[in-house]
Amino acid sequence: MSEEDISSVTAGGTAADRAERLTRTLRDQSFPNVKPRDSATLILIDRAEKIPKVLLGRRHERHRFLPGKFVFPGGRIEPTDRLMAVSAALHERHAVKLMRRLKRPSLAKAAAFALAAVRETYEETGIMLGAANAGAMTAPAGSWEVFAKAGVAPDLSKIHFIARAITPPNRPLRFDSRFFAADVSAIARRDDGFVGPDKELVELVWLLITEARALDMPGITAVVLEELQDRIATGMSLDHPVPLYRMLHKRFVREIL
Question: What is the phi-psi region of residue 208: left when phi exceeds 0, alpha when psi lies from -120 to 50, beta otherwise?
Fold first, then answer.
């Protein structure tokens, strides 16, 4: 999974104090340092009611990483994510922000981050996002073949880039995570059998965004929920800033991409 290995933080607060709250929850940093792995996460939003709901899943207690925690679906970027055809491209403003601070920026890599979030959401929840009745298409091996057989082409124009976060150094696992959001109207299909006692996620819950932070979740998950609330308040404006949370001089900083 793509969530930072940081313990929970207190809900609420302003953008100015989010990095400081993450700093206060730092855990053991005595492990050999490893390079962060690119990953992507997706937050599904249901805005049918006045207060939006978000989808979270509880990880299995036997998992080495974040056992029992509530998280958003997500995982590592795969090479095949660059090869999947889409029905509509990522918005240019999101693509530009995704390419910032990359050694080899490209539109294909920016799209791959969003595509990974869509693929991981399907693999962990059975929820397939995209444009239905897309017709015949070619797809790389694996989960993308299921999309092609179902006639569903990922629609990246419905995906919003919300935040980026890098696990601190000297943690046992490190991720360079991109957090995305999409409305439930982007769902093209739901398949059963992906969630249960023997799966990566043992349950899925839809909760009001104002109540979700009461769950047992990683600190970065709570912070990104706050970032999402800020963006929803603007009507999901493309002009809303996208923060990067990373460690600098042993403290978290919140920078704008």
Answer: beta
Question: pLDDT digit of tens for each residue in the chain (257 aa)?
Answer: 333 333 333 344 577 789 888 888 777 677 778 888 999 999 999 999 999 999 998 886 566 665 668 889 999 999 999 999 999 999 999 999 999 999 899 999 999 999 999 999 999 999 999 999 877 788 999 999 999 999 999 999 999 999 999 988 877 788 999 999 999 999 999 999 988 888 888 899 999 998 988 888 888 899 999 999 999 999 999 999 999 999 888 888 999 99
49 burial via Cβ count (<10 Å: 0-12, 13-18, 19+)? exposed
Domain that holds residue 67: 15-256
- CA angle at residue 243 from 238 to 244, to 5 degrees? 135
Which phi and psi angles does 93 have, rounded to 5°? -65, -35
Using CA atoms, how far apart are residues 177 and 163, in angstroms rounded to an integer?
8
Residue 108 covered by a domain: yes
- Classify residue 86: in a domain, yes or no: yes
Closest CA to 113 of 128, 132, 129, 94: 94
The alpha carbon dihedral of 185, 42, 220, 8 has a sign of positive
Residue 4 domain-assigned?
no
Q: What is the CATH number of the domain that holds 163?
A: 3.90.79.10
Is residue 165 within 8 A of residue 40, CB to CB? The reply is no
User: Is residue 224 a part of any domain in this protein?
Assistant: yes
251-256 vs 160-166, strand pairing mode = unpaired
Number of compact structural domains in the chain: 1
